[in-house]
Automatic annotation (TrEMBL):
Gene3D superfamilies for the chain: Lactate dehydrogenase/glycoside hydrolase, family 4, C-terminal, NAD(P)-binding Rossmann-like Domain
EC number per UniProt: 1.1.1.37
This protein's record includes keyword Methyltransferase: no
Protein's organism: Xanthoceras sorbifolium
Name of this protein: Malate dehydrogenase
Entry-linked PROSITE patterns: MDH
Length: 338
């Protein structure tokens, strides 16, 4: 393992020097949990992203193998691997963006909240590392239950004195990706032409698709609204059951995570008009965190958009979502405060 890493490092150094001469822009990105079901395809796709100059792959198992494999791809990013807690600080130092898919996934019959006890501790440890080694990095948090892990991360950063709400984003992109796909199927459109805002949170009834705001403008029958809302809210469970005990969504999640990370990097670069949905600190409702569209810029989520006009069906959904979200947020905050 060490000799493999040494080789990567020296060739990486030469590549980095070549790039410095050419002046190509690039960001340093770390993936924590890079050897997992999401982490591996996520690492592969990030290695193909031209905005990434350095890619750090951290996990408590199998990081060397994944790193050796991905480092052979003939794309620009220099890849380095980090194995286990003693290497966490090296993995994080100097990073612009940290993506966290570390933790256990659901099995059939489990809710995302059933993962709380294991994943809460993992997220706490990783965020303590971020606060120490790259306090200015943008954080994309994927580990479930996102409705609680984002408040946990916020409390860890507050304790460390590094909290900037703009830089902490819970990844709800998979809900948007699913919504675009399912709505396009019903409308007979190409999913790439469809934009469905999905607000609230990332679990069951907290996932609230705003079908009245779909672009291009369209209308649905009450049956279609019921079908689409249920399918979007239970898309994760559909995959968990189909995988029959071997895990939850990994490939579509990696795709969604890359789509979201790429938007964050374009924002960091200074591109105008980069807007995606994410679970962030928010004043849109009375809750301290809520998912809505946000504008991504050089400092993270620079603008949090309002919900826009809701119909009666969506207003009822919003009340249900807020009730469950309030409990999940409270659970995350108390985990750190106690
Ligand atoms: P997995 O079990 O295949 O991979 C998780 C990886 O995390 C493993 O390689 C494991 O070694 C690593 N890990 C465990 N403890 C760690 C630690 N302390 N530091 C670093 N790495 C650690 O799980 P999978 O399928 O990749 O899912 C990961 C997480 O993503 C789960 O919590 C899952 O619920 C969540 N998820 C979130 C979605 C979202 O939309 N936000 C969608 C799908 C899954």
């Amino acid at each position: 393992y060490p000799s493999n890493l040494q080789m990567e490092d020296s060739s990486g150094l030469r590549q980095a020097m070549c790039r410095a001469k050419g002046g190509a822009p690039g960001f340093k990105v770390a993936i924590l949990g890079a050897a997992g079901g999401i982490g591996q395809p996520l690492a592969m796709l990030m290695k193909t992203n031209p905005l990434v100059s350095v890619l750090h792959l951290y996990d408590v198992v199998n990081a060397p193998g994944v790193t050796a494999d991905i480092s052979h791809m003939d794309t620009g990013a220099v890849v380095r691997g980090f194995l286990g807690q003693p290497q966490l600080e090296s993995a994080l130092t100097g990073m612009d963006l940290v993506i966290i898919p570390a933790g256990v996934p659901r099995k059939p019959g489990m809710t995302r909240d059933d993962l709380f006890n294991i994943n809460a501790g993992i997220v706490r440890t990783l965020c303590e590392g971020i606060a120490k080694c790259c306090p200015n990095a943008i954080v994309n948090l994927i580990s479930n239950p996102v409705n609680s892990t984002v408040p946990i991360a916020a409390e860890v950063f507050k304790k460390a004195g590094t909290y900037d709400p703009k830089r902490l984003l819970g990844v709800t992109m998979l809900d948007v990706v699913r919504a675009n796909t399912f709505v396009a199927e019903v409308l007979g459109l190409d999913p790439r032409e469809v934009d469905v805002p999905v607000v609230g949170g990332h679990a069951g009834v907290t996932i609230l698709p705003l079908l009245s705001q779909v672009k291009p403008p369209c209308s649905f029958t009450p049956q279609e609204i019921e079908y689409l809302t249920n399918r979007i809210q239970n898309g994760g469970t559909e995959v968990v059951e189909a995988k029959a005990g071997t895990g939850s969504a990994t490939l579509s999640m990696a795709y969604a995570a890359v789509k979201f990370a790429d938007a964050c990097l374009r924002g960091l670069r200074g591109d105008a008009g980069v807007v995606e949905c994410a679970f962030v600190a928010s004043q849109v409702t009375e809750l301290p965190f809520f998912a809505t569209k946000v504008r991504l810029g050089r400092t993270g989520a620079e603008e949090v958009f309002q919900l826009g006009p809701l119909n009666e069906y969506e207003r009822i959904g919003l009340e249900k979502a807020k009730k469950e979200l309030a409990e999940s947020i409270h659970k995350g905050v108390s985990f750190i405060k106690k």
